[in-house]
Amino acid sequence: MHTVWKGSISFGLVNIPIKLHSATENKDIKLRQLHKECHAPISYKKVCEGCEQEVKEEDIVKAYEYAKNKFVVLEAEELERLKKENEDKAVEIIDFVKLEEIDPIYFERSYFLSPDTTGGKAYSLLRETLKESGKIGVAKIIIRSKEQLAVVRVYEDTLVMETIHFPDEVRSTADVPNIPSEETVVQKELDTALMLVDQLTTAFDPAKYTDEYRTALMELIEEKKASNNTVSVSDKQPLPDNVTDLMSALQASLDKTSKKKPATRKKKVAKTS
């Protein structure tokens, strides 16, 4: 399993060397875009809006747009220095809270925590402490230059760190349009709805839920492959017109020069008696 972060996590005076691994993966089927006429893949280029020229990676700088078309340019060195100043590889658990106190809207991404070579005993201690207390730990961590709020909890027999949004990253419900005000609900309708909920209530089993669209899409793809309904694109890219024209011009010039060049005559050497 790929390690995405390496450091340590601590609570009180207990320090645990750990590695972070992505706990989930996106299984969306990625579809490429092809040109309808020749079925060649479509590529995207970074083009400057000002001079309309393609820009190389080394010619790009980052900036913050503080007003329409007004930017503050941030140099790569400045961003790197700021990152190093705030990138502490030791993550401290700040508080312990109950899981049910955190609304699911705050949760973002899950990571498995594994102990480094010397962290097994401390890892087990934190795991059992969380199990016995029924609490989860709240901590801060910097991942990919972004400070994250996170919680540490037990999942099956493994510690899991889940990044969560800061409060100002969760939008206000007051901004959601067309929310109906409180209205009197007909009791008969409510009773019927509650009866339906009771009939559909069951223990949660994640294995029973599948991505039906992804399954159907893969079946369609396999059917097309089996019926040889596929297209192939050559890896060889044709030379741009200007290069082709240049080669033709050079060859024509060479041919023309060869025709004009006079044949070399051998000089006769006078014989001496």
Automatic annotation (TrEMBL):
Coiled coil: none annotated. Transmembrane segments: none annotated. GO terms for molecular function: double-stranded DNA binding. Keywords: DNA damage, DNA recombination, DNA repair, DNA-binding. Residues 258-273 have a biased composition (Basic residues). Belongs to the prokaryotic Ku family. With LigD forms a non-homologous end joining (NHEJ) DNA repair enzyme, which repairs dsDNA breaks with reduced fidelity. Binds linear dsDNA with 5'- and 3'- overhangs but not closed circular dsDNA nor ssDNA. Recruits and stimulates the ligase activity of LigD. Homodimer. Interacts with LigD. This is Non-homologous end joining protein Ku.
